[in-house]
Write the structure tokens for this entry.
Amino acid sequence: MTRRLLTTAMLAAFALSPALAADPPKADAKPATKAAPAKQNSRAAADILKASKPSEWRPLDPDNTLYVELPAGRVVIELAPAFAPLHADNIRTLVRSHYFDGLAILRSQDNYVVQWGDPEEDEAKARPFGAAKAKLAPEFTAPIKASEPFTRLPDKDGYAPQVGFSNSFPVGRDPRSGQAWLTHCYGAVGVARGNEQDSGNGSGLYVITSHAPRHLDRNIAVVGRVVQGMDKLSVMPRGTGPLGFYEKPEQRTTIAAIRLAADVPAAERTDLEVLRSDSPSFAAVTEARRNRHDDWYVAPAGYIELCNAPIPVRPVAAVPAK
């Protein structure tokens, strides 16, 4: 069975089948105690963000930021090399060799994923990988490192003993095994693979466009997340073939190019910054979402799921000319 069909078969099997600490707690830290429900005059998330300090935001690293250029516009992806260093490096190599230029969106499955890559990947005329590796060791999880910040959610989770955020990426982890992993939240970017665990090298990527399919966690390498441009992916026409694959070439959307932000002239970059997940403002925004007291809400949940906790992103403010 070809690698593409293996990828399809594997995904078919899956288809069938904050009161946050402002400082990152240690790996064995207990979850933060839930705060009492906020009062009716509690601040809205927008007001919290407006009052946030500049030091609570971090800019995207140009060496770990991808620009996917589509007919509808640019999609910005932040890579997470701390969790998948081999795959992140291989993707950078593929991008810098212009591997993705002219390839296509191959698949859009309703309430699941959008996937892109080489439509001829299993044929003799498949595009060569160049200096990139054809196979990589699986990076479905990564060792928990004391040096890595982790802001833990106190809310229970059905897929991981602990959940929270590391450097503003949603993360699950298991202190007993000493492993952590990026989760399949909306906008997560993962590496398509076949049945063999080492069969994904980053030449085929997918983005979650649905409610979080967390059953995929620890089964595929998640390499980052979309920080801007999900509106351009979530509206892709649904594929008419099995699992949303496009049956005809004209149904596919061509990718003009994928570039690293570091290789794009400064004037042409999309300068964004992300709210640090170890900041007080992030904790306040998450708590505001956990206990909604807007005029519309009758019964605040008093609970928040990992994938429903917002990760604010905004344009970098221009420095006024002197």
Summary: The longest strand covers residues 73-79. The mean pLDDT is 88.
